[in-house]
Design goal:
Length: 308
Amino acid sequence: MKAMSYSQYGGSEVLTQSQLPTPKVAPGSVLIRVKAAGVNPVDWKIMSGGLDALMDVNFPVIPGWDVAGVVAAVGFDTPEFTVGDEVYSYGRRDTVHGGTFAELVALPAAIVAHKPAGLSWELAAALPLTGLTAQRTLDALGVAEEQTLLIHNGSGGVGRTAIQLAVNDGVRVIATASPKNHDRMRELGAIPLSYGPGLVERVQELGLEGVDAVADFAGGVLTETLALLKAGGRHASIADWSVTQHGGQYVWVRPDASELERLSLLVEDGTLSVDVAQTFPMQDAAQAFEASMSGHGTGKIVLTEFTN
């Protein structure tokens, strides 16, 4: 099969198109013909060696954890799926090796969900990692109706999802973003504020003495978080391990089909939408990584099928 892969750590220059063996379909697993694959910053951070201390790597590596596609084959004892089913998944494995930037990927059935009918392949591939991360963070914070939640980096993929989930639960949301993204934050139901120096004062100007919870999707904002939290407030981060030393929780999302089905229901009833900023054919994955590294996107980057 065609796949994008790398055989050593490095930048986007180590990512090349390759011919690799079709994955085997183990009992309890499904083989998915990839229609689209989401690009996440963690993909190129792994490629650079940034997670080498946490995860075993088996070269050559096919990057990618998000996927949407069609079931091409099922392993023994996999009654949940049949060939032809449209599915999507956050396909992280414990070992970095066979990812989603390929024509085919094999995944355990327990982490694969049926794709919402109303989502295109591109939108479906953009949702799993960011959606599950937002959902897990909000579950950890336990923010109740009419409480106030501050989201650092509301304009990122995780932040946009978290805003919608929290607003749907009746939570008042304040989200930091660059001014160009403030209108989108308002559309999603959040009060937008610019990030950076003076954030504490800008929150106080809203007439608040503090916030009940903080979700950090940016990193480097612990001082502001602690300054704005009410006594007994809760905070969590996906970007800063040090929050655990200050009463916060570090969130590392787990693949889980049942949790993905929770998001599917919200997509199907119109509560949750997904923003895709750019798409690239699979063979241009290196360019997609460069676009992701620039940090200037206004939505997710998605790879579509090979065109060569």
